[in-house]
User: Fold this.
Amino acid sequence: MHKLFAHSVSLFFILVLGGFSTAHAEIRETSVWWLPRNVNMFGHAIDFIFYVILVLTGVTFIGVFSVLAYFLVKYRARPGVPAIHSHGNNTLEVVWTTIPVFIFLGLAIYGNEEWSRMRRQTPPADALPVAVVGEQFGWNVRYPGADGKLAKMDAKKVGKENPFGVDSADPAGLDDFTTYNDLVFPVNRPIRLYLGSKDVIHAFYVPEFRLYQDMVPGRVYDFVWLKAEETGKFQLACNQLCGQGHYKMFGKLSVVPVAEYESWAKGKAPVPAVTGTSSATPVVLNQR
Ligand code: CUA
Assistant:
């Protein structure tokens, strides 16, 4: 018994201290013990449902385990006291089945409603389009130039030399510029993402946006959009184990005032137009 206790204590410390060291290795602007702050307009509903579920399950947990503890003591085996035979209580069972049914239905209907708002609603027409294509192990990012339009992406054309799967003659893409592991979003403006992958499954994950989307090669995901309501510096982390370098697959992501975004974008050179066969790869790519 004593040995078991000692083991549990040391296990506890290993878990807690281990938790401390990994927690400190993480790059986060806020507490690692609770949710990071939310800056996306869609995140409020996600946080709300998180807290609703936390309260529901917390109250149920405390209730169920209190009754369990009470019964364990009250009906413990005692010499000379016969066991009580119970055949259940239909009313009670109907009640404790019906209430959860309505709770789960409510959660499912609310969740579905919010999901439709986030992923099935057409992104606003004035949204800034930004293409993000994952590769082992980094993020290719493509921004529109002055015309506000990105070159059309074709999942079939995505390849080693053409991470965005674009046609280099596409007039919409002539003023596009690219970055590597570097994203800047203007605050309070809808951003429409075009997500893809060059090789294996990656995932676009920004906890402060409450946004997670897998990127399966062979597809371009054009339905994800967001609107950051606050400025800050965040991290775009890949959230699918995609190979040996998965742990270091992250990009800098900052949300800045619109004017700051505009001057940043102005300073970027457009993707060089393809004239021969050798200049097809934009200069910033493939820096591993
Ligand atoms: Cu890409 Cu993990």
User: Anything to note?
Assistant: Confidence is low (pLDDT under 50) at residues 14-26, 275-288.
